[in-house]
Design goal:
Elements: H1 2-8, E1 16-18, H2 35-40, H3 44-49, H4 55-62, H5 72-84, H6 86-97, H7 101-112, E2 118-122, H8 131-140, E3 144-148, H9 156-159, H10 161-173
Parallel strand pairs: 1-2, 2-3
Helix pairs in contact: 1-7, 4-5, 5-6
């Protein structure tokens, strides 16, 4: 959703780094497309989140997004706010119910006329966010560059934090 923020407030952003993420019509991706309609139903977000209240289920649900094992305490920290704070759950329901490809399609259209420097640090082979989406963004945006981050999946920052940090540092200091 960084693309939506950047294209809504372009005067506030000097550069953008995206790793594997929602773009174009791939929002939400694949099996997650059922979530927004369910979140709109009374009690829908409770039903969607119920399995994640079981820590083993939550850990297993995130496993396909990383090559490396995600630490149990990290997954627990992601889940805790929605489990313990009804306002967080309310906000999660609003965001989930509002997920619609029209937002990412509109952002992609606005990026076409942008000269914003964009680094697409993408893990190739990701089944949820294929590199073709990064290539499409690069082709449409005026100032985008793809760097492939090998040995990573969707959670590039968890799988290859050092490599990603190097690429971001280089990008931040380039002209």
């Amino acid at each position: 959703m960084s693309q939506v923020l950047v294209t809504s407030h372009p005067d506030r952003i000097g550069r953008l780094v995206l790793t594997n993420c929602d773009t174009h019509e791939n929002f939400p991706p694949g099996m997650f497309k059922a979530m927004p309609p369910l979140a709109k139903l009374p009690g829908g977000m409770f039903l969607l989140s119920a399995p994640f209240r079981i820590e083993a289920v939550a850990r297993r649900a995130f496993a396909p997004f990383a090559r490396t094992k995600i630490p149990d305490e990290l997954v627990a920290s992601w889940m805790k706010p929605a489990k313990t704070d009804s306002e967080v759950m309310r906000d999660a329901a609003k965001v989930t119910a509002g997920m619609n490809k029209r937002h990412t399609l509109a952002a992609a259209e606005k990026l076409r006329s942008s000269q914003l420097p964009i680094l697409l640090a993408w893990a190739p082979g990701d089944k949820y966010f294929p590199i073709g989406y990064a290539e499409r963004l690069q082709g449409e945006a005026g100032n985008a560059k793809i760097v492939q981050i090998a040995d990573a999946k969707t959670f590039v920052a968890l799988d290859q934090p050092g490599r990603l940090a190097e690429e971001i540092a280089e990008f931040a200091t380039s002209s």
